[in-house]
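Please go through the protein record below and explain what the tokens say about the fold. Record follows.
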Amino acid sequence: MVRVLLVDDEAMIRAGVRSIIANDPGIEVVAEAADGREGVEMARAYRPDVALVDIRMPVMDGLDAAAEMRRVAPGTGVVILTTFGEEEYVLRALAGGADGFLLKTGDPRELILGVRAVAEGGAFLSPRVARRVLDELDRGRAAERLAAGGRVSGLTRREREVLALLGAGLSNLEIGRRLFLVEGTVKGHVSTILKRLGVRNRVEAAVLAHEAGLVDHAGNAPGPLPDGG
């Protein structure tokens, strides 16, 4: 069972999120909080698998709360849930260690997908948010792209293939199917990639894959390359 902490100062929003989560028998809301500070204390007390955290709240906003949750409950994945899709919020949330970013106005199915992805140790960005992040990264980032290319060049051919598909938004299972690998092998490659690149999670790895040019503007990545190892 995936245990979820819901942090939002609007009772109606919390009720709506609860009703969506109730559609999945494998997910349950174990605690709720109406402000960021209370959310941090709930995360410390309940150690949920995932915390869904609103950005704009009294006492402590969601971005500060997310960063604090990562400190007091490092096993809890944090997903920012908000109506605000501006790039500055997205980039600040990711820089603070958030594992996902969802818009309240998005498809309810994205909420379930996001919770499950983060609970399994992955990351999730709603498609609209991902597009905003990539557009922002494309603006005047030649130096960053060059640096990203240098970091990626230290990976093996197979690791670059896995990173490219990760950047295209594929799950470990989907990457395995594309590269004809079992899921456990893919997980091993992903762990090695994160360590070798010095990134904290799949979101940062995916951004680096785009910066390095491993994924095209349509979100496509190559399949297995000749002699991949």
